[in-house]
Request: fold
Amino acid sequence: MILAKPSSFSSPMLRPSAAPSTTVNPRQQLSAGPVQDTGTRSMNARGFSPVDAFEPAVINRLQLRAPALPPAAEAPQSSGSGIPSANDKRPAGDTRSAAQIVDDSPVLKKLGRQKDIKFEQLCKQTGVDPKLDLKDPKQNADGVYRLTKVLEFIDSAKASTGGDRGNKVQNGKGDGNIEGITKDGDARHGTEAGMLKDFAEKGYSFLGEHQLPTTKDTHVKADGSNKDNFQWAAGEAGKALWFIPGVSNVLTGIGNSEGGFKGVLEGAATGYLNTIKGAAEGLVGSITKGRANPASMLFGSYMGALANTEAAPQPVKDIASLF
Reply:
């Protein structure tokens, strides 16, 4: 028989102030059978038995805590970043046929077959069957959906500088035209057509920033569209004559216009109005600064117009704006 003796590490119930401890037989305490009831339910009578620690309620709780199996991985349906992906499929509930997807996408309906569009390579990249018409009932609808997403992504891209193309993109949607193809069927770099050509050749890895690539091609306007030869010549002349504000702004306006007779007139008028606006601001500035003599007023008008000349070098415009 062993007597349970209180110690400094014992429970407060085992200290001298507690009820006298009873003798406990270790064999009885750890036996598989029931522990003898000594008449009291104090902890010192029952001891710290491992058997007592695992009461039925505790065991049941442990059994219910079995780790849950991870959910089965699902095939990705989209890149999730807004950038088209080779994994893209029609969203859940979208049961449109290939023909319906084509009809719902202006940019796909208008897509040409010029040599640099590289239509067969576009089909290969997106999973479209190039041997079938896009509206054929046997056509891969998910492939046509992927092709549509690529075209819409390119058509709604920002300018190469990262700025908005307000005349081409409205509310995040492009105008439905892939621009940048020359009369010979070539795609100019820095245009939508050039971006589409790069995708056809390089695949989805080419689609990164949602903006047009930069280019040194002087036939490409800031919005990614082409200049015809007349526009190009006018724009280059405007750059060369930057020190003659009125002439430079008119020529630059023509170069940046939409083209056609109406576009040329609108571009020229815009350039002329910018010159008048700058000259008027310079004239008013010379008067308010106390230089109300003809020579100073003429000089102020010129410097104001020069500061508002688009083709002028930026340092020149900065200096001109000080007068």
Notes: The radius of gyration is 40 Å. The beta strands are 169-170, 173-174.
